[in-house]
Amino acid sequence: MSDTTAAPDMLSWSCPAPLRDRPRVVMGHGGGGALSAELIEQVVLPGLGAAAPAALTDSAVVELDGARLAFSTDSFVVRPLFFPGGSIGDLAVNGTVNDLAMSGARAAFLSCGLILEEGVEIETVGRVAEALGAAARTAGVRVVTGDTKVVEAGHGDGVYISTSGIGLVPAGVDLRPERVVPGDVVLVSGAVGVHGVAILSKRENLAFEAEVESDCAPLGGLVEAMLAVTPDLHVLRDPTRGGLAASLNEIAVASGCGVVVRERAVPVPPAVAGACAMLGLDPMYVANEGKLVAFVPREHADAVLAAMRAHPLGAGAAVIGEAVAEHPGMVVARTGLGGTRVVDLPMGEQLPRIC
Protein backbone atom coordinates (compact mmCIF):
# COMPACT_ATOMS: atom_id res chain seq x y z
CA MET A 1 0.00 0.00 0.00
CA SER A 2 1.35 3.42 -0.90
CA ASP A 3 2.15 5.81 1.92
CA THR A 4 -0.04 8.37 0.17
CA THR A 5 -3.17 6.20 0.38
CA ALA A 6 -5.75 7.99 2.50
CA ALA A 7 -7.07 6.14 5.52
CA PRO A 8 -10.76 5.33 5.32
CA ASP A 9 -13.04 7.77 7.11
CA MET A 10 -14.86 5.21 9.24
CA LEU A 11 -16.84 7.89 11.08
CA SER A 12 -18.68 8.72 7.86
CA TRP A 13 -19.77 5.14 7.20
CA SER A 14 -23.41 4.18 7.64
CA CYS A 15 -25.19 0.86 7.69
CA PRO A 16 -28.38 0.51 5.60
CA ALA A 17 -29.83 -2.20 7.87
CA PRO A 18 -30.31 -2.56 11.62
CA LEU A 19 -27.14 -3.35 13.53
CA ARG A 20 -28.92 -6.03 15.55
CA ASP A 21 -29.31 -9.32 13.74
CA ARG A 22 -33.03 -9.08 13.06
CA PRO A 23 -33.98 -9.77 9.44
CA ARG A 24 -37.68 -9.19 10.19
CA VAL A 25 -39.69 -6.60 12.10
CA VAL A 26 -40.47 -7.57 15.69
CA MET A 27 -42.91 -5.98 18.15
CA GLY A 28 -40.06 -4.12 19.84
CA HIS A 29 -39.52 -2.06 16.68
CA GLY A 30 -42.76 -0.25 17.51
CA GLY A 31 -42.04 0.35 21.17
CA GLY A 32 -40.38 3.76 20.99
CA GLY A 33 -37.07 2.48 22.35
CA ALA A 34 -33.68 1.50 20.94
CA LEU A 35 -35.10 -0.88 18.33
CA SER A 36 -37.47 1.82 17.07
CA ALA A 37 -34.58 4.27 16.80
CA GLU A 38 -32.49 1.77 14.83
CA LEU A 39 -35.33 1.03 12.42
CA ILE A 40 -35.91 4.73 11.73
CA GLU A 41 -32.29 5.85 11.60
CA GLN A 42 -30.85 2.93 9.65
CA VAL A 43 -33.70 1.88 7.37
CA VAL A 44 -36.43 4.52 7.04
CA LEU A 45 -34.35 7.70 6.91
CA PRO A 46 -31.81 6.37 4.39
CA GLY A 47 -34.73 5.27 2.24
CA LEU A 48 -36.26 8.75 2.36
CA GLY A 49 -32.96 10.37 1.44
CA ALA A 50 -33.31 14.10 0.81
CA ALA A 51 -37.01 13.88 1.73
CA ALA A 52 -36.20 12.90 5.33
CA PRO A 53 -37.24 15.29 8.14
CA ALA A 54 -34.59 17.55 9.63
CA ALA A 55 -35.48 16.55 13.20
CA LEU A 56 -37.10 13.44 14.63
CA THR A 57 -39.81 14.95 16.78
CA ASP A 58 -43.45 14.04 17.39
CA SER A 59 -44.52 17.17 15.53
CA ALA A 60 -42.75 19.42 13.05
CA VAL A 61 -42.89 23.21 13.15
CA VAL A 62 -43.06 24.65 9.63
CA GLU A 63 -43.57 28.16 8.27
CA LEU A 64 -46.29 29.08 5.79
CA ASP A 65 -46.86 32.68 4.69
CA GLY A 66 -45.30 33.97 7.88
CA ALA A 67 -47.28 31.69 10.20
CA ARG A 68 -45.60 28.97 12.26
CA LEU A 69 -47.59 25.77 12.06
CA ALA A 70 -47.12 22.55 14.01
CA PHE A 71 -47.92 19.42 12.00
CA SER A 72 -48.13 15.90 13.42
CA THR A 73 -49.27 12.44 12.38
CA ASP A 74 -49.81 9.29 14.44
CA SER A 75 -51.32 5.81 14.23
CA PHE A 76 -53.18 3.87 16.92
CA VAL A 77 -53.34 0.10 17.21
CA VAL A 78 -54.31 -0.34 20.86
CA ARG A 79 -55.68 -3.64 22.13
CA PRO A 80 -58.33 -3.80 23.56
CA LEU A 81 -60.25 -1.08 21.74
CA PHE A 82 -62.03 -0.03 24.96
CA PHE A 83 -60.28 0.12 28.33
CA PRO A 84 -60.79 1.75 31.75
CA GLY A 85 -60.76 5.50 31.21
CA GLY A 86 -60.86 5.59 27.41
CA SER A 87 -60.80 3.92 24.02
CA ILE A 88 -58.91 3.93 20.75
CA GLY A 89 -61.11 6.87 19.71
CA ASP A 90 -59.95 8.97 22.66
CA LEU A 91 -56.33 8.03 22.01
CA ALA A 92 -56.55 8.95 18.33
CA VAL A 93 -57.57 12.51 19.16
CA ASN A 94 -55.62 13.14 22.34
CA GLY A 95 -52.43 11.55 21.08
CA THR A 96 -52.24 13.88 18.10
CA VAL A 97 -53.49 16.95 19.97
CA ASN A 98 -50.83 16.36 22.64
CA ASP A 99 -48.05 15.99 20.08
CA LEU A 100 -49.00 19.42 18.76
CA ALA A 101 -49.18 20.84 22.28
CA MET A 102 -45.60 19.69 22.93
CA SER A 103 -44.59 22.19 20.23
CA GLY A 104 -46.58 24.87 22.05
CA ALA A 105 -49.31 24.83 19.39
CA ARG A 106 -53.04 25.07 19.89
CA ALA A 107 -54.50 22.23 17.83
CA ALA A 108 -57.08 23.34 15.26
CA PHE A 109 -57.74 20.64 12.66
CA LEU A 110 -57.45 16.87 12.46
CA SER A 111 -57.67 14.28 9.72
CA CYS A 112 -58.80 10.76 10.55
CA GLY A 113 -58.17 7.51 8.69
CA LEU A 114 -60.04 4.36 9.74
CA ILE A 115 -58.74 0.89 8.84
CA LEU A 116 -61.48 -1.63 9.61
CA GLU A 117 -61.16 -5.39 9.66
CA GLU A 118 -63.79 -7.37 7.78
CA GLY A 119 -66.21 -8.80 10.34
CA VAL A 120 -65.89 -6.12 13.01
CA GLU A 121 -69.28 -5.22 14.44
CA ILE A 122 -70.84 -2.03 13.08
CA GLU A 123 -71.86 -1.21 16.65
CA THR A 124 -68.16 -1.27 17.63
CA VAL A 125 -67.28 1.13 14.81
CA GLY A 126 -70.08 3.42 15.96
CA ARG A 127 -68.81 3.44 19.55
CA VAL A 128 -65.30 4.28 18.37
CA ALA A 129 -66.62 7.11 16.19
CA GLU A 130 -68.68 8.52 19.05
CA ALA A 131 -65.67 8.44 21.39
CA LEU A 132 -63.53 10.10 18.74
CA GLY A 133 -66.08 12.87 18.22
CA ALA A 134 -66.50 13.48 21.94
CA ALA A 135 -62.75 13.70 22.43
CA ALA A 136 -62.43 16.15 19.53
CA ARG A 137 -65.10 18.41 21.03
CA THR A 138 -63.40 18.31 24.43
CA ALA A 139 -60.04 19.18 22.85
CA GLY A 140 -61.57 21.99 20.78
CA VAL A 141 -60.54 20.59 17.40
CA ARG A 142 -62.45 19.78 14.21
CA VAL A 143 -62.05 16.62 12.16
CA VAL A 144 -62.06 18.16 8.69
CA THR A 145 -61.08 15.24 6.44
CA GLY A 146 -60.55 11.50 6.54
CA ASP A 147 -60.56 8.13 4.85
CA THR A 148 -61.88 4.62 5.45
CA LYS A 149 -60.43 1.32 4.28
CA VAL A 150 -61.42 -2.30 4.97
CA VAL A 151 -58.97 -5.21 5.09
CA GLU A 152 -59.77 -8.93 4.92
CA ALA A 153 -60.64 -10.84 8.07
CA GLY A 154 -57.49 -11.93 9.85
CA HIS A 155 -55.44 -9.03 8.46
CA GLY A 156 -56.31 -6.46 11.12
CA ASP A 157 -57.44 -6.22 14.70
CA GLY A 158 -60.91 -4.72 14.49
CA VAL A 159 -60.11 -1.02 14.15
CA TYR A 160 -56.89 0.89 13.51
CA ILE A 161 -56.88 4.69 13.36
CA SER A 162 -54.43 7.15 11.83
CA THR A 163 -54.73 10.85 12.61
CA SER A 164 -52.87 13.97 11.56
CA GLY A 165 -53.19 17.40 13.10
CA ILE A 166 -52.35 21.04 12.45
CA GLY A 167 -52.03 23.84 14.99
CA LEU A 168 -50.68 27.37 15.26
CA VAL A 169 -47.51 28.04 17.28
CA PRO A 170 -47.64 31.40 19.14
CA ALA A 171 -44.93 33.97 18.54
CA GLY A 172 -41.98 33.70 20.91
CA VAL A 173 -42.48 29.99 21.65
CA ASP A 174 -39.51 27.78 20.78
CA LEU A 175 -39.76 24.32 22.32
CA ARG A 176 -36.99 21.91 21.36
CA PRO A 177 -34.46 19.79 23.25
CA GLU A 178 -31.48 21.70 21.87
CA ARG A 179 -32.48 24.61 24.16
CA VAL A 180 -31.98 22.57 27.34
CA VAL A 181 -29.02 23.75 29.44
CA PRO A 182 -27.47 22.57 32.72
CA GLY A 183 -29.51 23.89 35.63
CA ASP A 184 -32.90 23.44 33.94
CA VAL A 185 -35.49 21.99 36.30
CA VAL A 186 -37.39 18.86 35.23
CA LEU A 187 -41.11 18.87 35.99
CA VAL A 188 -43.71 16.15 35.44
CA SER A 189 -47.41 16.98 35.40
CA GLY A 190 -48.61 14.06 37.51
CA ALA A 191 -48.58 10.36 38.27
CA VAL A 192 -46.80 8.15 35.74
CA GLY A 193 -47.51 4.63 34.46
CA VAL A 194 -51.28 4.87 34.77
CA HIS A 195 -52.26 4.32 31.13
CA GLY A 196 -50.08 1.27 30.58
CA VAL A 197 -51.32 -0.44 33.73
CA ALA A 198 -54.96 0.34 32.84
CA ILE A 199 -54.50 -1.31 29.43
CA LEU A 200 -52.78 -4.33 30.96
CA SER A 201 -55.48 -4.83 33.58
CA LYS A 202 -58.18 -4.98 30.91
CA ARG A 203 -56.17 -7.05 28.43
CA GLU A 204 -55.11 -9.70 30.93
CA ASN A 205 -58.19 -9.52 33.20
CA LEU A 206 -56.06 -8.52 36.18
CA ALA A 207 -57.69 -7.17 39.32
CA PHE A 208 -55.86 -4.75 41.60
CA GLU A 209 -56.89 -3.38 44.99
CA ALA A 210 -58.01 -0.15 43.30
CA GLU A 211 -59.10 0.12 39.66
CA VAL A 212 -56.57 1.92 37.51
CA GLU A 213 -58.01 4.13 34.76
CA SER A 214 -56.11 5.57 31.83
CA ASP A 215 -54.96 9.18 32.13
CA CYS A 216 -55.84 9.81 28.46
CA ALA A 217 -56.58 13.55 28.13
CA PRO A 218 -55.84 16.58 25.89
CA LEU A 219 -52.96 18.63 27.30
CA GLY A 220 -53.40 21.83 25.28
CA GLY A 221 -55.00 23.78 28.13
CA LEU A 222 -52.27 22.78 30.57
CA VAL A 223 -49.56 23.85 28.13
CA GLU A 224 -51.30 27.20 27.59
CA ALA A 225 -51.33 27.77 31.35
CA MET A 226 -47.60 27.07 31.52
CA LEU A 227 -46.80 29.33 28.57
CA ALA A 228 -48.86 32.11 30.16
CA VAL A 229 -46.25 32.19 32.95
CA THR A 230 -43.40 32.45 30.45
CA PRO A 231 -42.98 31.53 26.78
CA ASP A 232 -39.38 30.62 27.65
CA LEU A 233 -40.03 26.95 28.37
CA HIS A 234 -37.19 24.93 26.85
CA VAL A 235 -38.82 21.62 25.89
CA LEU A 236 -41.99 19.62 26.51
CA ARG A 237 -42.64 15.93 25.90
CA ASP A 238 -45.61 13.64 26.44
CA PRO A 239 -44.06 10.38 27.67
CA THR A 240 -46.13 7.83 25.76
CA ARG A 241 -44.32 4.80 24.29
CA GLY A 242 -41.31 3.95 26.42
CA GLY A 243 -42.66 6.08 29.25
CA LEU A 244 -40.84 8.79 31.17
CA ALA A 245 -37.50 7.03 30.73
CA ALA A 246 -37.65 7.16 26.92
CA SER A 247 -38.60 10.85 26.85
CA LEU A 248 -35.82 11.83 29.25
CA ASN A 249 -33.26 9.87 27.24
CA GLU A 250 -34.34 11.45 23.96
CA ILE A 251 -34.00 14.92 25.48
CA ALA A 252 -30.64 14.13 27.07
CA VAL A 253 -29.17 12.85 23.80
CA ALA A 254 -30.53 15.72 21.68
CA SER A 255 -29.46 18.41 24.16
CA GLY A 256 -26.04 17.00 25.03
CA CYS A 257 -26.84 17.44 28.73
CA GLY A 258 -27.05 14.85 31.45
CA VAL A 259 -30.26 14.40 33.44
CA VAL A 260 -30.48 13.51 37.12
CA VAL A 261 -33.82 12.25 38.44
CA ARG A 262 -34.69 11.81 42.11
CA GLU A 263 -36.40 8.45 42.01
CA ARG A 264 -38.60 9.04 45.05
CA ALA A 265 -39.79 12.37 43.62
CA VAL A 266 -41.37 10.67 40.58
CA PRO A 267 -45.10 10.38 41.40
CA VAL A 268 -46.22 6.76 41.10
CA PRO A 269 -49.68 5.86 42.45
CA PRO A 270 -49.74 2.93 44.92
CA ALA A 271 -51.88 0.82 42.58
CA VAL A 272 -49.41 1.33 39.72
CA ALA A 273 -46.43 0.66 41.98
CA GLY A 274 -48.06 -2.53 43.24
CA ALA A 275 -48.95 -3.74 39.75
CA CYS A 276 -45.45 -3.04 38.46
CA ALA A 277 -43.86 -4.81 41.44
CA MET A 278 -46.07 -7.85 40.87
CA LEU A 279 -45.36 -7.96 37.12
CA GLY A 280 -41.68 -7.01 37.20
CA LEU A 281 -42.17 -3.68 35.42
CA ASP A 282 -40.50 -0.31 36.01
CA PRO A 283 -43.10 2.52 36.19
CA MET A 284 -40.66 4.91 34.49
CA TYR A 285 -40.89 2.78 31.33
CA VAL A 286 -44.68 2.40 31.31
CA ALA A 287 -46.64 4.55 28.84
CA ASN A 288 -48.75 7.59 29.72
CA GLU A 289 -51.38 9.37 27.61
CA GLY A 290 -52.25 12.44 29.66
CA LYS A 291 -48.98 13.54 31.23
CA LEU A 292 -46.09 15.76 30.16
CA VAL A 293 -42.51 16.32 31.21
CA ALA A 294 -41.02 19.83 30.99
CA PHE A 295 -37.51 21.27 31.15
CA VAL A 296 -37.85 24.79 32.53
CA PRO A 297 -35.26 27.49 33.29
CA ARG A 298 -34.61 27.46 37.04
CA GLU A 299 -35.74 31.08 37.49
CA HIS A 300 -39.21 30.22 36.17
CA ALA A 301 -39.63 26.75 37.69
CA ASP A 302 -41.57 27.68 40.83
CA ALA A 303 -44.08 29.84 38.93
CA VAL A 304 -44.57 27.25 36.20
CA LEU A 305 -45.06 24.50 38.79
CA ALA A 306 -47.69 26.61 40.56
CA ALA A 307 -49.53 27.19 37.27
CA MET A 308 -49.48 23.47 36.54
CA ARG A 309 -50.88 22.58 39.95
CA ALA A 310 -53.67 25.14 39.48
CA HIS A 311 -54.84 23.27 36.35
CA PRO A 312 -56.94 20.09 36.71
CA LEU A 313 -54.53 18.09 34.55
CA GLY A 314 -51.49 19.27 36.52
CA ALA A 315 -52.75 19.00 40.09
CA GLY A 316 -50.17 16.31 40.84
CA ALA A 317 -47.25 18.11 39.20
CA ALA A 318 -43.84 17.65 40.81
CA VAL A 319 -40.17 18.56 40.47
CA ILE A 320 -38.33 15.32 39.70
CA GLY A 321 -34.82 16.37 38.71
CA GLU A 322 -32.56 18.67 36.72
CA ALA A 323 -30.34 18.90 33.68
CA VAL A 324 -26.60 18.76 34.45
CA ALA A 325 -23.30 19.18 32.63
CA GLU A 326 -22.02 15.81 33.84
CA HIS A 327 -22.52 12.53 31.94
CA PRO A 328 -23.86 14.23 28.77
CA GLY A 329 -26.58 12.32 26.94
CA MET A 330 -27.22 10.04 29.93
CA VAL A 331 -30.08 9.84 32.43
CA VAL A 332 -29.36 8.67 35.97
CA ALA A 333 -31.66 8.21 38.94
CA ARG A 334 -30.74 8.87 42.55
CA THR A 335 -32.34 6.06 44.53
CA GLY A 336 -33.95 6.32 47.93
CA LEU A 337 -31.00 4.43 49.43
CA GLY A 338 -28.53 7.03 48.22
CA GLY A 339 -27.24 5.08 45.25
CA THR A 340 -27.31 5.93 41.56
CA ARG A 341 -28.56 3.88 38.63
CA VAL A 342 -28.54 4.49 34.91
CA VAL A 343 -31.99 4.93 33.36
CA ASP A 344 -31.29 3.72 29.85
CA LEU A 345 -33.38 3.92 26.69
CA PRO A 346 -35.66 0.85 26.64
CA MET A 347 -34.86 -1.75 24.02
CA GLY A 348 -38.45 -2.25 22.92
CA GLU A 349 -41.76 -1.99 24.78
CA GLN A 350 -42.68 -3.62 28.07
CA LEU A 351 -46.37 -3.56 27.12
CA PRO A 352 -46.94 -3.68 23.34
CA ARG A 353 -50.10 -2.44 21.62
CA ILE A 354 -50.99 0.18 24.23
CA CYS A 355 -51.40 3.19 21.94
UniProtKB/TrEMBL annotation:
Q: Where is the PurM-like N-terminal domain?
A: 58-169
UniProt KW keywords: Plasmid
Q: Which Pfam families match?
A: AIRS (PF00586), AIRS_C (PF02769)
Q: What's an example GO BP annotation here?
A: protein maturation
Task: Provide the PurM-like C-terminal domain boundaries.
Answer: 182-327
Top-rank taxon of the source lineage equals Bacteria
Do you know which InterPro entries this protein is assigned to?
HypE, PurM-like_C_dom, PurM-like_C_sf, PurM-like_N, PurM-like_N_sf
The answer on whether this UniProt entry bears the keyword tRNA-binding reads no
Concerning its family, UniProt says: Belongs to the HypE family.
What is the designated name of this protein? Answer: Hydrogenase expression/formation protein HypE
